[in-house]
Amino acid sequence: MAGHSKWANIKRQKARVDAVKGKTFTQLSRAIIVAARNGVPDPSGNFQLRTAIEKAKAAGIPNENIERAIAKGAGTYADDSAQLEEIRYEGYGSGGVAILIEALTDNRNRTAADLRAAFSKNGGNLGETGCVSWMFAQKGVVILSDAVDEEKLLEASLEGGADSYEIAEDDTAEVYVGVGNLENLSQHLKNEGFVVDEVELRWIPSNSVEVSDAEQARSLLKLIDTLESLDDVQNVTANFEMADQLMELSVT
């Protein structure tokens, strides 16, 4: 089963050398709000909400903040008037690298202005809708720890309907599946004895740009960091590949 090493590897490498990682309370809370709004406000019957709550708890968000976010999504929080909407933005980084940004915002003009400034200051430009999204396909991803038995992982992945998987050097694994089958695959892998660390939806690029120039690498990583630091931004995905050594040099 072929893997999707491109952006997954970039994110892993980046996390090892970049101290500014992890979602802010605002970003995680907004994910809960949208999940509760899009489905029932009960995590037992809403997989998206259950996943968002698990991520929030892992980040140390207090239970009262989580409950408030659920109430906002359900429309039962009296002091909330902000209406969040999900928007996907697209653009180019240095060297024509394709970048997708998923945002949750209560003011799309503010978000667009912030994104445009981030791109222009870091060698890229915000594009029109559809300019790069055709290069990406959304997949469900189940992230496992201690996936050392590849034969067992292959068998369980096939039985669970997975499309592919990849095992990293630290024996973590990412298993890819169609969006509609994500919950079933996650439960199947748990039943087979695997430790599921996280489940998520991710945009997977169909092609990649190899980055070998240090200045281009530095520019791209700074752009990604700037975009991820914006409160309205939930996820950033790009289609470049980069060697570990260049990654480490570029973020110092």
UniProtKB/TrEMBL annotation:
UniProt xrefs under InterPro entries: Integrase-like_N, TACO1_YebC-like_2nd/3rd_dom, TACO1_YebC_N, Transcrip_reg_TACO1-like, Transcrip_reg_TACO1-like_dom3, YebC-like
GO MF, one example: DNA binding
Residue ranges annotated for the TACO1/YebC-like N-terminal domain, each copy included: 5-75
HAMAP family: Transcrip_reg_TACO1 (MF_00693)
Pfam families: TACO1_YebC_N, Transcrip_reg
Domain of life: Bacteria
Domain TACO1/YebC-like second and third: 84-240
Family: Belongs to the TACO1 family.
Protein name stated in the entry: Probable transcriptional regulatory protein IQ230_10250
Keyword Transcription: yes
Signal peptide boundaries: none
